[in-house]
């Protein structure tokens, strides 16, 4: 695995054996690793450490992983950070809740270190590809800056978590083209990440709440498109 120098990963899990296993394998692959054993300490450490990736358990004392993820996604300094849930929870509602608050991937325990490293590498590969696209888009009062992950509507800045931003940016890059939910899952979350189709609907709804209803149209029975006159 090719690791960019100084890539940082934060592990947040209350099981000491899992934290030790993850830390050992991540450090072996050349990552800088920090750890926390509950959600509140994880958020505090993330503010200082500013990791490229956060591995997060759901069931933790003090503060669970879903609430922790929600708080992390509200921090502008972590707008470019990936979040992967590592959890024993197999219920669909837990997975939906994780993606609703901004998770990039959801992996069921027990953890297989080599498979996990492959998923992490896939996320970072997609980031490298995105760095080569147009740096900004301006359409009908909407300004999207890919380099700083910022969005403004008629000069007023709005905050979008990473996946909401990527979804908007992708649609705006392809104005008036209709994409199915499967197309959007493939392009935003990737083929190697299993995400429920309704996750796309949730993200579209959240983007519309922040930028208005006029930019993204629903094509009934097909999917979504970005409107451009």
SSE topology sketch:
Blueprint: E1 8-12, H1 16-28, E2 32-36, H2 39-49, E3 53-56, H3 65-73, E4 82-87, H4 92-100, E5 105-108, H5 113-130, E6 136-139, E7 142-145, E8 150-153, E9 156-158, H6 162-173, E10 179-180, H7 181-189, H8 198-211, E11 216-219, E12 223-226
Parallel strand pairs: 1-2, 1-3, 3-4, 4-5
Antiparallel strand pairs: 6-7, 7-8, 8-9, 10-12, 11-12
Overview of this protein structure:
The protein is of the alpha/beta class. It folds into two domains: 8-130, Response regulator (Rossmann fold), CATH 3.40.50; 136-226, Arc Repressor Mutant, subunit A, CATH 1.10.10. 41% of the residues lie in helices and 21% in strands. The protein is built from eight helices and twelve strands. It has helices spanning 16-28, 39-49, 65-73, 92-100, 113-130, 162-173, 181-189, 198-211, and strands at residues 8-12, 32-36, 53-56, 82-87, 105-108, 136-139, 142-145, 150-153, 156-158, 179-180, 216-219, 223-226. Strands 2-1-3-4-5 form a five-stranded parallel β-sheet, sandwiched between helices. The chain has a four-stranded antiparallel β-sheet with strand order 6-7-8-9, with helices on one face. Strand 11 (216-219) and strand 12 (223-226) form a beta hairpin. Helix 2 runs parallel beside helix 3 and helix 6 (162-173) crosses helix 7 (181-189). It is globular, with a radius of gyration of 18 Å. The termini are far apart. The model has no long low-confidence stretch (mean pLDDT 87).
């Amino acid at each position: 695995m090719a690791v960019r120098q100084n890539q940082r990963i934060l592990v947040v899990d209350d099981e000491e054996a899992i934290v030790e296993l993850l830390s050992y394998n991540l450090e072996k692959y050349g990552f800088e690793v920090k750890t926390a054993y509950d959600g509140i300490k994880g958020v505090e450490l993330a503010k200082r450490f500013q990791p490229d990736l956060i591995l997060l358990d759901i069931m933790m004392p003090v503060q669970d992983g879903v609430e922790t993820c929600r708080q992390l996604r509200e921090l502008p300094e972590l707008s470019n950070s990936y979040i992967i849930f590592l959890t024993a929870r197999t219920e669909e509602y837990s997975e939906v809740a994780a993606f609703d608050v901004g998770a990039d991937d959801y992996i069921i325990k027990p953890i297989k270190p080599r498979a996990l490293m492959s998923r992490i590498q896939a996320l970072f590969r997609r980031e490298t590809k995105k760095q080569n696209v147009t740096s900004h888009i301006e359409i009908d009062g909407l300004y999207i800056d890919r380099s700083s992950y910022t969005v403004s509507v008629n000069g007023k800045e709005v905050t979008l978590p990473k996946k909401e931003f990527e979804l908007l940016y992708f649609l705006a890059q392809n104005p008036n083209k209709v994409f199915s939910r499967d197309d959007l899952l493939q392009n935003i979350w990737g083929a190697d990440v299993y995400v429920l189709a309704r996750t796309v609907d949730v993200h579209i709804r959240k983007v519309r709440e922040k930028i208005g209803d006029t930019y993204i149209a629903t094509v009934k029975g097909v999917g979504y498109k970005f409107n451009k006159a």
